[in-house]
Specification:
Blueprint lengths: L2 H9 L8 H9 L3 E5 L8 H9 L3 E5 L3 H13 L4 E4 L5 H12 L5 E4 L1 H4 L2 H8 L3 E6 L14 H11 L6 E6 L4 H11 L6 E3 L7 E7 L3 H11 L4 E5 L3 H13 L4 E4 L5 H12 L5 E4 L12 E6 L6 H8 L9 E7 L2 H12 L4 H19 L4 H8 L20 E3 L1 H13 L6 H9 L2 H4 L19 H13 L3 E3 L7 E3 L1 H7 L6 E3 L19 H18 L3 H4 L2 H10 L4 H5 L6 H24 L1
Parallel strand pairs: 1-6, 1-7, 2-4, 2-5, 3-4, 5-6, 8-13, 9-11, 9-12, 10-11, 12-13
Antiparallel strand pairs: 14-17, 15-16
Helix pairs in contact: 2-3, 14-15, 15-20, 17-21, 18-20, 22-24, 22-26
Pfam families: DEAD (PF00270), Helicase_C (PF00271), HRDC (PF00570), RecQ_Zn_bind (PF16124), RQC (PF09382)
Protein name: DNA helicase RecQ
Cofactor: Mg(2+); Zn(2+)
Length: 599
């Protein structure tokens, strides 16, 4: 079976991305497999292509109800019959779809996990010829995942009891080794059937901005990227509303999205963003899980997310088309306190709260580190031994590096003299020599290191402790009341065997406009093709990227196809796309060339 030919004919791609073919072959062999790929890494092809080949139905279980319609529309657009059944479908429409599915005319059915545990629906489902069960966002099955969902676990037993023994495919973009082990156990997936492609996104530039005027930075950045699509994430609804109003007042066409808006307004804002009526949207993390927009060029975080998993999934919404994109975290330590407050107030048990606190500690380390940002994330997901990316703000930071060994030794020695029994707040106040610590019953004032930083502020001292923690000289004990302990590196510093260097004062890293394409292409032709794409999108009530991605249009602008064979060679153009749009786009290219030659 020529899988590459099937890939090109149905999806328009000449070659598979890493891991895709291996997973597809396991699925076609009727096995249980799991794919761990970064956001934008092409997970959906791993079940969509087998669905084309299988005689029976492919059942896709996903918690992302808002994404299902986009996925179905995209599949139908390339001639692959698909539909979805979830709470948004009215009963009369649902009955019609169910009859259509029973006829065997549908290749893929998307459902939410809650549908599987509905006895009536499951009874109907059991009578169908199901060849493949694909479980998307599989990390939520794990109690160690960052978004635990009870209905996901409850559906596993009935899915295992489906007749016909369909193949299984679990997919996730954010899974630590602990989560991977948990999923393999729950889903009975053998170790040799776990395909992990790596989390590196080499088209994505990670940046951190510290100590800046956040609203001013956002306005300047958005205006300098005014023709590009971007998402601005904020932690609170109030922040979303304030940034939205601020940008509006400064002439930016902007949308907003959070749970405090009506369903109608949220839907309209999302549609405006998907259909390119607005280029930028400000949102809480409620937005984006259902967004498959491929041409998002930047993601800005106004506040730091609570976990590295959430952060990397959110920044992964930039550059899904493979073209260069940026993700910038606007960091202030105070942001972490909001997360701490929500963790303390959450309804989860102590183990769940502890898990969240440990994850918050890791994202705080990321925000303070001076090492390569991409390498830090890859290390977190278990990809040790990777090299620096050479493109993040830390790799490109040219600030002067100064020796801070003396201050580091003072801080670390103080922690040792405090018998490594305390957390950051107490340690910082002892180092600065605050009165409440001098009068404390534990007699900290008797320590030779008490007040050793009396010439520094609490903020400066706290940042030093954060730096030492983020860069591996200190480690946290975890637990409900985490304490700071010296690592092996920290002990070497105290013993005088290792020096500590740090970049000088923090300064804002200038936002650089990302390259829009690899290689040269005609920008004027690209804009004409974008306009033609928009015409088709409006006629068919589809988001423009479902017609052709920006990457495909740029490839057209480079290749300049003037016949069907050349047009079919464009990345992202398959047989159905050629039949639907080939003539119009070829004519547009020919007309552009004619005008250019005569001018």
């Amino acid at each position: 079976m020529d899988l590459e030919a099937i890939l090109k004919e149905n999806f328009g791609y000449d070659t598979f991305r890493p891991g895709q073919k291996e997973l597809i072959e396991k699925v076609l062999a009727g096995q249980k497999a799991m794919g761990i790929m970064p956001t934008g890494g092409g997970k959906s092809i791993c079940y969509q292509l087998p669905a084309v080949i299988f005689d029976g139905l492919t059942l896709v279980v996903s918690p992302l109800i808002s994404l299902m319609k986009d996925q179905v529309d995209s599949l139908n657009e390339v001639g692959i019959p698909a539909t979805f059944l979830n709470s948004t479908v009215e009963w009369h429409d649902r009955e019609e779809r169910m009859r259509y599915i029973e006829s065997g005319a549908v290749k893929l059915l998307f459902v939410a996990p809650e549908k599987i545990v509905d006895e009536e629906f499951y009874s109907w489902l059991s009578a169908l010829n199901i060849s493949l069960v694909a479980i998307d966002e599989a990390h939520v099955l794990s109690s160690w995942g960052h978004d635990f969902r009870d209905s996901y676990l409850k559906m596993i037993k009935p899915l295992k009891q489906l007749p016909g023994k369909p193949a299984w495919l679990a997919l996730t973009a954010t899974a630590t080794q602990q989560v991977q082990n948990d999923l393999a156990d729950i889903l009975d997936i053998p170790a040799e059937n776990i395909v992990k492609t790596g989390f590196d996104r080499n088209n994505l530039t990670l940046k951190i901005e510290r100590g800046i005027d956040k609203p001013a930075f956002i306005l300047n950045y958005v205006k300098s990227h005014i023709d590009e699509s971007g998402i601005i994430y904020a932690g609170r609804r109030e922040d979303v509303d304030n940034i939205y109003s601020f940008l509006q007042k400064n002439g930016v066409k902007v949308g907003r999205y959070h749970a405090g808006l009506s369903d109608k307004e949220r839907h309209q804002q999302q549609e405006d963003f998907l259909f390119d009526r607005i280029n930028v949207i400000v949102a809480t993390n409620a937005f984006g899980m259902g967004i498959n927009k491929t041409n998002v060029r930047y993601v800005l975080h106004f506040t730091v997310p609570g976990t590295i998993e959430s952060y990397y999934q959110e920044v992964g919404r930039a550059g899904r088309d493979g073209l260069p994109a940026e993700a910038i975290l606007l960091y202030a330590p105070v942001d972490l306190r909001l997360h701490q407050f929500f963790i303390d107030k959450s309804q989860g048990d102590e183990q769940y709260k502890l898990s969240l606190k440990n994850k918050l500690f890791e994202i705080s380390r990321y925000a303070e580190t001076e090492t390569c940002l991409m390498k830090f994330i890859l290390d977190y997901f278990g990809e040790t031994g990777t090299s620096d990316c050479g493109r993040c703000s830390n790799c490109l930071d040219n600030r002067e590096i100064v020796d801070v060994t003396a201050d580091a030794q003072k801080a670390l020695s103080c922690i040792v003299r405090m018998k490594q029994r305390y957390g950051k707040k107490v340690i910082t106040r002892v180092l600065v020599g605050k009165d409440d610590m001098a009068n404390d019953w534990r007699h900290f004032e008797e320590l030779p290191t008490f007040g050793i930083f009396n010439d520094k502020t609490l903020k400066e001292t706290s940042r030093l402790i954060d730096f030492l923690t983020a860069n591996g000289f200190l480690r946290s004990s975890g637990g409900k009341y985490p304490i700071l302990l010296l690592s092996a590196k920290g002990k070497e510093v105290v013993q005088g065997k290792l020096n500590v260097t740090r970049r000088k004062e923090a300064m804002s890293v200038k936002a650089v406009k990302p390259m829009v394409a690899d290689g040269s292409f005609d920008v004027d032709l690209f804009e004409k093709l974008r306009a033609l794409r928009l015409e088709f999108a409006r006629k068919q009530a589809l988001p423009p990227f479902m017609i052709f991605s920006d990457k495909t249009l740029k490839d057209m602008s480079v290749r300049l196809p003037t016949d069907e064979k050349e047009f079919l060679a464009v990345s992202g153009v398959g047989k159905v796309k050629l039949e639907q749009y080939g003539t119009d786009f070829i004519n547009e290219i020919k007309e552009f060339q004619k005008v250019s030659q005569n001018s």
